[in-house]
Every structure is written in structure tokens, then in C-alpha cells.
Amino acid sequence: MDDAEKNALLMFLEAQRASVLAIIDGLDDEALTIPVRPLGWTPLGLVEHLGHAERHWFQEIATGSAEPLPWPDDHTPLTTSRPPSVVFAFYRTQCERSNAILASMPLSTPPRGRHPDPLGKEITDLRRIVLHMIEETARHAGHLDIARELLDGKTGLGPR
User: Fold this and answer.
1) Are the CB atoms for 5 and 149 separated by under 8 Å?
2) How many CA atoms lie within 13 A of 113 on its CB side?
3) Would the pTM of this model clear 0.70, i.e. be above it?
């Protein structure tokens, strides 16, 4: 049962990840770094944020540890000074690590790390970490969908 549930959860998580990348596919470096909303976030910054979220939830929270970041995390949230190639490689690497962690642990495994409350109270096992990442990724895919429409008018991008 655990394998069937894991496969279903991973299928939905992978679909959301693919949506994130498909929505911004074709944007040039300038468009990826344009803040399209008054809060100042950029499409590329949001992808980097999702990489950090993958790292945080699957490594820091699920396993209790993570390798040090390859750069200081001292920029304005949801923006980045790194080039797209670096950000996309970071995101893909974090997703691969998340998948490996998911494959290696039962869904019932309690987290070894702790996220602050109130969300921390809700995260009782790996299953809820995966569900949270599906929610987080889908929410930001929606943000990126709006950003893409504002940048060049394209809508409905992505595999679903």
C-alpha cells in the first residue's frame, strides 16, 4: 500500500514541478528577472524559492540535515542574483534529492527536524511533507502562470 500511495503522491508532485518549469519555458533571462507584481518577486526568484522549499522540507525536516547551500542566502526573498542556469540546476538537484529521500523512507516516518508552528504541528510524517510540497508547488505554479500572462500574454502552459 505504501508504494502505491508513494507513487500517487510523487506523480502529483512531479506534475506540479513540471508545470512550474513549463510555465516559464521560453522566457528570456530578462523576463525571468522582471518583478511583475508590486511585492517585487521574480519568476526566477520563485523557482529558486521552490528549490529552497524542497531542500528545507525533504532534507532539513524529513531527514534532519542538509548539505550547506552553495551560496549565502542573504537576498530579498523570492528574488535571486544567480543566472537561470544555476537556479534551474539547483531546483532540479533539490527535486532529485527529495525524490531519493521519498524513495528511501516509509510515508509514516516522523520528521527528524522541526519546522516552526503552526505548520510544524501539522507535519507529523513524510506523507504530510509530500502533501505540503504538492500544495506549495501548485500555489507557486499559479503565481507563475499569472506572471507569465502579465509578461507576454501566454496562458494555459504546462502539462495539465
Assistant:
1) no
2) 16
3) yes
Cα 146 to chain centroid, rounded: 17
Kindly report, residue by residue over 140-152, the tens digit of the pLDDT: 999 999 999 999 9
pLDDT, one tens digit per residue, over 12-33 is: 999 999 999 999 999 999 999 9
Q: Is 116 exposed, middle or buried (0-12, 13-18, 19+ CB in 10 A)?
A: exposed
Which cell is 119 given?
505548520
Phi/psi-derived region of residue 75, left when phi > 0, alpha when psi is between -120 and 50, beta in every other case? beta
Residue with cell 528545507: 56
- List the grid coordinates of 35: 518583478
- Report whether 102 contacts 58 (CB < 8 A): yes
Nearest to 6 by CA among 108, 92, 93: 108
Positive or negative, the Cα torsion across 71, 18, 129, 36? positive
User: What would the DSSP string read from start to end of 59-96?
Assistant: IIIIIS--PPPSS---SPTT--SS-HHHHHHHHHHHHH
**Grid cell in block for residue 45:** 526568484
Read off the amino acid at residue 66.
Answer: A
Query: CA angle, corner 142, sides to 107 and 158, nearest 5?
Result: 85
